[in-house]
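We both want to read discrete structure tokens more fluently, so let's practise on a single case. Would you supply a protein for us yourself, any chain you care to pick? Would you write everything just below, so we can both look at the same thing?
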Amino acid sequence: MHSGLRSFLSIICFSIALFGQQDSHVNAREELNRGVVAYRAANYEEAVQHFENAIHFDPDLKMAHLYLATAYAQQYVPGIDAPENIQMANRALDQYAAVLRQEPANVTAMKGMAYLHLQEKNFTEAKQEYKKVTELDPGDPETWYSVGVVDWFIVYKDVETVKTTLKSHSENALLLSPACRNLRITELPNLEDGLAMLTQAIKLRPNYDDAMAYLNLLYRLRADLECGDKKSAAADRKKANKWTDQAMASRRKRADDVPELERK
């Protein structure tokens, strides 16, 4: 074949491939936009189909993976162990993972994974993901708060499990129980971590009343784990009450700051 003809055919083939690639990108964007419209209308099944189509046309389209993950997550119902419900959460996690394979520091995907793990009560995984986000975006108070909430869930679950085995249900039942020492060794690191996380959240957002409310809860748990030291337990409960008062005061102030027209 003449070299000139070969060059001409090569150009033609390249052009056809380029136009095909451009068509795929256009189709992917169109499907993504249709999916967003369906998603905003809460038509999640339709949205899923459009986002899947977008990924078919352009597997590297991160926004399609993120929206698809969110659409799956919206259909997941926490606390329901039905296989199709669990599958919905797993599909969402798979899509978040696909984004992280392309962009390991994608904060949106990490937050999505962390939140789903929390909803599934996979506390260790949730804490790991939220901790990564605090390293990547240390100025976000909500992520520090989320780690503190996960710490509370971890400690509360284990403390309540032990409490159900005790004969007494008094305020100091666990504090005076032989079971207290081992539980303190296990749970104190998570408890102290939670206090530190929530304190940082309030440092970043001084009126963060939800974080104050969880500080109250964590100090009450720490009082349970003072193990024979009633004085320290009383001091922890005093701190808990202080944070309750501060949370209520912050909420009242926020309500007072709302313009009167918005309250009506």
About this structure: Residues 138-257 form one domain.
